[in-house]
Write a structure and sequence with these properties.
The protein has 449 residues and is mainly alpha-helical. It has 21 helices and two strands.
Length: 449
């Protein structure tokens, strides 16, 4: 146990006993798996084959697993050294589809490599941009990273697969029971129970689903026909690349938004892992953003979909109070191995939707509150109230009333695509505008001295 905080069970550099290490890593890996459906969804939407979908899912898992290991590793050049795993990046889904429709998967892969390069350039510049991210801005960014996961969390929790889908009481019961066990184990459980709260909730929810939902039992039969091992690249054509100048702007915007999201995740991971820090340490944040960009570019090179850091996993680390980077390294190894084993990956993918939703709601609760807590370290005045308030209203408006923003000119519309990026970009800009006179006065005072 780290000496910095009595609340932390396994600190940043602690190596848990092998049983705890494996179980905590498996718990993290379960959350990482929740985004594994995005590559299959992308391939299906652009008319790809089942073989292409299976291959892209496997390659994306391998890229995310390797990226998780790089992110948690501590070396001189790359990686934050925090428990901040990679998952398939949902923020890249729309532009990846656009690229695949325009020029096939080679164009999608080429543009993902380009986006990864943009992220790496931003990582190098982040130290010089420290003034743009006071606690109130970083706190709001962290909170909005959690808020951005709400739609997929809630739809999974209630088992809804499409708009207008019926409300199933079986799904609601399974989700509520799983969430209740997770919360109860985390609040009232002792050390071991608290650490494995998510695993306990998943186990009970899955058992309840097998009892209430006959489809859950039928789905298990799918596993039998899947092979234990398979190399995901079937031909060299899967590695072809293309580039389109017309897609530079959309992918550049998404790369910036992805960097802001990862910035928020890394800030939250730092706050959770090193509570003794008095101010933000930008060095590991910068190396973490570099790792994120490198992993995105690597995913495109491999033929996978773009990957990104996971807010849910950071929230789970806060809930379990086990923040050891060795947990992330072990989870990354497991996730990489699953990418080569269709039978094992299929088994994990059959976790019922309401149980997945319950897991995400449980973990994201910590992410949102971590951000709010960071914001409250500063005293609010009129300048901060308007910077945060206007950013939240317009940013959340992109989710509540998207039709309004769709009528904007295209060059403005790209900044108002979803709540996370819109809110973060606005609060950075408005904070600087509302504090411009203070900054000028401070510089004049400094020159006078």
């Amino acid at each position: 146990m780290t000496g910095n905080s009595q609340k932390i069970i396994y600190g940043l550099d602690d190596v848990p006993p092998w049983k705890d290490l494996l179980l905590l890593s498996f718990q993290q890996m379960l959350l990482m798996f929740t985004a594994a459906t995005f590559p299959a969804m992308l391939v299906r939407e652009v008319g790809g084959t089942l073989e292409e979908a299976s291959s892209m899912v496997a390659l994306t898992m391998i890229a995310a697993g390797i990226g998780t290991i790089i992110q948690a590793s501590r070396n001189r050049f790359i990686g934050s050294g925090y428990l901040c795993p990679n998952i398939c990046g949902p923020s890249y889904l729309a532009v990846s589809m656009q690229a695949a429709w325009s020029g096939g998967f080679p164009l999608m892969r080429g543009m993902i490599i380009f986006a990864g390069g943009i992220e790496m350039l931003l990582a190098k510049a982040i130290n010089r941009l420290r003034f743009l991210f006071p606690p109130i801005v970083t706190g709001l960014t962290v909170a909005m990273v959690g808020v951005s996961v709400i739609p997929v969390s809630v739809t999974n929790f209630f088992g809804t697969r499409f708009a207008g889908d019926r409300f199933g009481w079986e799904d609601a019961c399974v989700g509520a029971a799983a969430l209740a066990v997770m919360v109860a184990a985390n609040i009232w459980g002792k050390r071991g129970i608290k650490m494995y709260c998510l695993l306990l909730g998943v186990a009970l929810g899955w058992l309840l689903a097998l009892w209430l939902q006959p489809d859950a039992i039928d789905n298990l039969a799918i596993i039998i026909d899947e092979p234990w091992a398979r190399f995901p690249i079937h031909s060299l054509s899967q590695l072809k690349l293309a580039f389109a100048p017309g897609l530079i702007i959309p992918f550049m915007i998404i790369a910036i938004c992805g960097s802001l999201k990862s910035f928020g995740n890394l800030v939250a991971a730092q706050n959770i892992s090193e509570p003794e820090l008095k101010e933000l340490d930008m060095k590991p944040i910068s190396k973490g953003l570099l790792a994120d960009g490198f992993t995105t570019a690597m995913a495109g090179t491999m033929g996978a979909m773009a990957v990104d850091t996971s807010s849910s996993n950071v929230g789970l680390a806060a809930a379990t109070q086990a923040v050891s980077r060795w947990i992330a390294i072990c989870a990354g190894i497991i996730f990489t191995v699953l990418g080569f084993s269709p039978k094992l990956s299929m088994s994990i993918s059959l976790v019922p939707m309401p149980v997945v939703g319950a897991s995400m709601i449980f973990a994201v609760s910590f992410m949102i509150c971590t951000g709010l807590k960071e914001m409250m370290t500063e005293k609010f005045d009129q300048r901060k109230i308007f910077a945060v308030g206007i950013s939240l209203i317009l940013g959340l408006g992109t989710g509540f009333v998207p039709g309004v923003f769709e009528r904007m000119p295209h060059y403005l519309q790209i900044f108002f695509t979803e709540p996370l990026s819109s809110t973060t970009i606005l609060v950075v800009i408005l904070y600087q505008i509302f504090h411009f006179d203070e900054l000028i006065a401070a510089r004049r005072k400094k020159k006078g001295n």
